[in-house]
Design brief:
VC0802-like; single chain; eight-stranded mixed sheet; 2 domains; alpha/beta; 18 strands; 37% helix; binds magnesium ion; six-stranded antiparallel sheet; 24% strand; binds adenosine-5'-diphosphate
Amino acid sequence: MRVLVQKFGGTSLHTREMRKHAIEHVREATKEGYAVVVVVSAMGRKGDPYATDTLISRAREVAGEVPPRELDLLLSCGETISAAIFAAELNASGIQASALTGWQAGIETDDSFGDAQILRIRPQRILDLLSQGIVVVVTGFQGITDSGEVTTLGRGGSDTTAAALGVALGAEMVDIFTDVDGVMTADPRLVDEARRLDVVTYNEIFNLAYQGAKVVHPRAVEVVMAHNIPMRVRQTSSSTAGTLITSVTEMDRGRIGPARLVTGIAHTAHLVQVKVLLPQASLDDEEQEERTRQALELEAAVFQRMASAGVSVDFINVNTLGTSFTIAEEDLSRAKAALEEIHAVLRIRSGCAKVSVVGAGMHGVPGVMAKIVTALTKTRIPILQSADSHTTIWCLVPQERLQEAVVTLHDAFELGKSITLTAAREAVS
Ligand code: ADP
Ligand code: MG
């Protein structure tokens, strides 16, 4: 049995019109001889009646804080509605289909409500249906614990459901259908010139996604990467091929062509920069060393507090002045409360955003950082902080300059045009 998993996101299922497009993709796949498993998100986005964010705000409006267990039970309804309706519409269009919730589909998770991890999938029920030629529509984003509690998987959870089902069913491919034409060199909402990439490696898309390109969730990429299952990102409203996500081996076979220096520009908005300062004085070398030791101790204390407050930190710098890092805006009050316990001296800057230049090919290539700094400085965009790893260079900028920063970097690396590695290296030298 050749299994294909097709995941449809919230906007892809929002209107009847969109669902008709989705149905045609399912029909196409069955005609090609695939046994099809459809994974659905809740319909629409915030403001739409059953979208996840709408359900969250409704519950908070009436009850204030909702216990995590009850919140997950509520949130799971969005996908359940979606699956039931989509299966009904498939049947009405002459495609035999059956809807399954996370638990009916055998998706077992741990008990971290709101951010549960899939532990295992017992795919027998899905396989039985597929072998009878029935399309199985599974709710994304949800599962069940050993003790029978309903859980949800957190942001981008339906992508992870699709990837995990792909692995459990030995699928030939996992297709992520969404409202854009594929993986682009930057978020097309910010950059008009963003270009679709035909093929990307798992690593490239993982890094882009991890840095905020929400077109596919990084956890989903990790799952398919571990089992070398190809994934495609495609547009629901068209029949274009989209972007193929595959391994470097495929790239070596020449399918990707010359490696890219920079894959794309990703961004994360709504961040707060937190600086925790040490008292200052003029210092000789020995005192500097002592200072560094104190800074590291402070860092350890700070991050311990952040971890116990459940605040995730990023962009960490440590120097003789102290330590600085970023957190999500929504975590600010919790972070402050935790840091007050250690009487830390704080400098807080709200309204920040992170732009990341991501590329598997830029490791060790001189001039990339210089190019970034030059481009941003020329546009007079302040760089509040920067850091790099072997695949990514990040800059923290004021939120109100975010779009400009993304466009500037996209231009600087000429990502709107397709270029070869040699040309890219020449461009930064
Ligand atoms: P879905 O509801 O289908 O899961 P998402 O909103 O989660 O859709 O993801 C699709 C969105 O991702 C696009 O509308 C686009 O604005 C955004 N996006 C961000 N970065 C990129 C990128 N590099 N390529 C394509 N889309 C991107
Ligand atoms: Mg998504």
